[in-house]
Design goal:
It is built from 11 helices and 5 strands, in the order αβααααβαβαββαααα. The protein has 242 residues and is mostly helical.
Length: 242
């Protein structure tokens, strides 16, 4: 049912008009930011586009990175001139611009580091609070992505094993699949934090670099921090798969 209408009574075109989608790998075309946004709403004004980009925490980097070109800046083939987090925020802004009644997020933050994941998650949470009458369906493996959801559906090998909030799922079945998943992820994050702590980072870390030559550029620092985030993410995934 969608707004009281059985889905079988809706034609495919009508259903697509009320839905927005953001996947794990955002699709951006080799044109400007504006043109990419207009795929969601062809008649959108520049003010509407700017508002959607601000809602998705994308406006600041556009001003910093694109300068005077702003939304007219080219993103390159498949968004090659942008980072993964920047591409994802533009894809989410495009979904916001459409103002869908149903927003489907399929692992929308799984390819991002901690910093970009937080920015994207904040954008989604803020949009949900402002929109009010919207259903957001999130497919995710990261606990941080779904912990505040109104309803969590636990699916294990195609079988629905539980349904409720984070708190009720823990309380009703403390030894169940969801509680076990939460515990395993917490352990994986703790292990990753330990493996990427200052005492475990190699000689090329930002701290060591600063000690060696007395200074480190902002770009070098960012690259090293991103590398540390990547190691932490790989450690979590490896531990979760064990």
């Amino acid at each position: 049912m969608i707004d009281g209408t059985p889905m079988k009574e809706l034609n495919l075109s009508s259903l697509r008009q009320v839905m927005g989608y953001v996947g794990q790998e955002p699709v951006l075309f080799n044109t400007s930011i504006k043109e990419n946004m207009l795929f969601a709403k062809p008649d959108a004004t520049d003010e509407e586009i700017e508002s959607a980009l601000k809602a998705a925490n994308a406006w600041d980097f556009i001003e910093d990175k694109m300068g005077s070109q702003g939304i007219k800046a080219q993103v390159g083939g498949a968004g090659a001139s942008l980072s993964g987090g920047q591409k994802q925020r533009i894809a989410i802004a495009r979904a916001f611009l459409k103002k869908p009644k149903i927003l489907l997020l399929d692992e929308a933050t799984s390819a991002l580091d901690k910093r970009n994941e937080k920015l994207v998650q904040e954008a989604i949470d803020n949009y949900r609070q402002r929109s009010g009458n919207i259903t957001i369906i999130i497919i995710a493996h990261r606990l941080s992505t779904i912990i505040d959801a109104d309803k969590i559906c636990v699916i294990n090998k195609g079988v629905l094993e539980g349904m409720g909030t984070h708190e009720t799922l823990h309380a009703e079945d403390p030894a169940g699949t969801y509680a076990g998943f939460c515990k395993k992820q917490e352990n994986a994050e703790a292990r990753a934090e330990n493996n990427t702590s200052p005492s475990r980072i190699n000689e090329n870390s930002p701290t060591k670099m600063k000690e060696m030559d007395g200074s480190v550029s902002a770009l070098q620092m960012k690259e090293k921090i991103d590398a540390i985030d990547k190691v932490r993410e790989e450690e979590i995934i490896k531990f979760m798969e064990e």
